[in-house]
Amino acid sequence: MSQKTGTFNSLNATNASTYPVPPFAQQKQPFPGLASEMQPRPDHGETSYQGSGRLSGRRALITGGDSGIGRAVAIAFAREGADVAINYLPDEEQDAREVVELIRQAGRKAVAIPGDITDEAFCQRLVSQAVEQLGGLDLLVNNAGRQQFRESILDLSTEDFDATFKTNVYAMFWITKAAVPHLPAGASVINTSSVQAFKPSEILLDYAQTKAAIVAFTKSLAKQLGPQGIRVNAVAPGPYWTALQVCGGQPQSKVEEFGASAPLGRPGQPAEIAPLYVTLAAAENSYTSGQVWCSDGGTGTL
User: Is 290 left (phi over 0), alpha (psi -120 to 50) or beta?
Assistant: First the structure.
């Protein structure tokens, strides 16, 4: 893509050819995990993303904005000219502080709203606080997710199943429902699905179901909100190197070889997928809605 789009520059191209490849060191963190503790540390575009004003004056709320894909999107949105509110769990405060500083360094307003999105009342407060502190809302990115592998359905407890659906599906519903009355024509909702929605792994039974639900939610809501001029799309990541993987999302044996089976031979870095979110948020894509865009390192899932 050209530099005019604000997505890639020569430094990005260099990074893409030198990003780390497996095998990776064994590493396990308690849930929800911190990007700052990962080895190698993920690239969220901290030094490479250059904006070009594609989101000037927009106001965005991003869940899971402390690390991983959400962090990369927050950095990209800010450097494209948007003010950004991020939500995250209190245990992720260390990573969140870094993101807030990066948003401010981009010259944009940063709003940090910690809290647990599995609680409906908090989801409603999250949206109202974001709207109040940003002065409105134009972009909503439902990105926060829970992924905990289980080898067998016999090991998958009702509590685990419920927690995954509450985080990945219920919270998306609650937050979007609260946000819609504040979204003007031209607003954009972007949900994070996964290739797991289309090619589910045997050890991610509950997670894969939630990601399939997100696809249906996206396509249905796009039809519902289209007459209001509000677009709804989703991104379906493949293997991306994020804290989600090292805090129970994958067995250690798979963490060591994570992304090796992709045609590009490595996992994606969050910085490599943030441009998709920018493109879906940008006004020049005003006829794109109800779509699911995949980025999986060449597997061709979609």
Answer: left
Nearest to 110 by CA among 138, 80, 82, 85: 85
Known catalytic membership, residue 207: yes
Give 86-121 pLDDT, tens digit per residue: 999 999 999 999 999 999 999 999 999 999 999 999
The single residue of 49, 207, 240, 277 carrying the catalytic annotation is: 207
pLDDT tens for 219-243 read 999 999 999 999 999 999 999 999 9
Q: How many CA atoms lie within 13 A of 239 on its CB side?
A: 22
Is the separation of the CB atoms in 179 and 127 below 8 Å?
yes
Contact present, 9 and 48 (Cβ < 8 Å): yes
C-alpha–C-alpha distance, residues 193 and 143, integer Å:
8
Q: Which of 2, 280, 82, 284 is nearest to 295 (CA)?
A: 280
Tell me if the pTM is above 0.90. yes
